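cache lookup: miss for this entity combination. No prior model stored, computing from scratch. Input as submitted by user K.M.:
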Amino acid sequence: MAAKIFKDLPGGLKMPAIEIGTWQITDEADIETALNTALELGYRHIDTAFAYENEHFIGRVLQEWFSSGKLKREDLFITTKLPLQGVHPDRVEMFIKKSLENLKLDYVDLYLIHFPVGLKYVEGETNPSLVDMQTEPEDHVGVWKKMEEQVDAGRTKTIGLANFNVRQIDRILQSARIKPACLQVELHVYLQQRELVKFCLQNGFVVVAYSPLGCPGYNKSLEEIGAEPKKLPDMLHDETIKKIATKHTKSTAQVMLRYLLQRDLVAIPKSVTPARIKVNIDVFDFSLDAAEVKALDDLEVGEEARVCDFKIIPALLNHPEFPFSK
Ligand SMILES: NC(=O)c1ccc[n+]([C@@H]2O[C@H](COP(=O)([O-])OP(=O)(O)OC[C@H]3O[C@@H](n4cnc5c(N)ncnc54)[C@H](OP(=O)(O)O)[C@@H]3O)[C@@H](O)[C@H]2O)c1
């Protein structure tokens, strides 16, 4: 079975199918290691977000690559995201400008609404305590119009959504002048999101799978805010995946990523470990056969396997636009 190296986006833009994720990398040295390793190995797609608080470090590394002449801006596909405090028509432009300034770029390739629920914003207070955060009333159509204006202004090549459900995407499609190019959602062997993927592909947008390895580092975030650790799905040690990996002399991570590529998805594995960054993009020289794909399909757990449920911000749960089951 084939797996595309690039996905076609509107305007002739090509999105590389393996992307390096950068959530939870807040240390400058770790960003340098991760990005320099990834770029040397041929990664050309980087995922960040205003909320990850690392855009300025990424901008610095990118400048070094550009000024040394090793890469040109147009060689890269850069994605960043409107934070939850920006999900309001009055704040879209302000936040994309902040991201561009941080990243030291004139434009990004893809700008995503990070989450379908907006949080109140107080100037200068970008990261208030999670328990104190208050939500905004929903105005997805108004926010989307402002997202479209960012394309018109040349600040982003394309726009898209993250963590939206079918109903919410459909509402945007009803009024959109510029259709979403992409939906980014948690998606892995245990949480396959088949209905959502079918809907997106039918409507012509690319689905990007975040936490493709099941986010084994998630409890680090809970620990930082003093929350109880969560029981995480452990796909890296799943016996079925191990068996398939052994047959191909690959790792379980590589099998999970290859599975997503063969489903016509883009995957964003995150790592700060050079050996892992290397294996995570080494997934184009083998292929899963129909029986192996079926065995992986059968591992679906569904909603219970969701890791990034955003429940660490209690106010989100009570909002009518909270996108996942509670
Ligand atoms: N839109 C959203 O709301 C959203 C939410 C979550 C994530 N994302 C994006 O998606 C990216 C990836 O998701 P994620 O960070 O949640 O989880 P992930 O990529 O599924 O897992 C990352 C974790 O797996 C480890 N790892 C990476 N490669 C490995 C390998 N080959 N073998 C064993 N372990 C490996 C990493 O450890 P080391 O780093 O220590 O090597 C890290 O702890 C994020 O970084 C972010 O860019 C978006």
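stored under new cache key. The chain has a mean pLDDT of 95.
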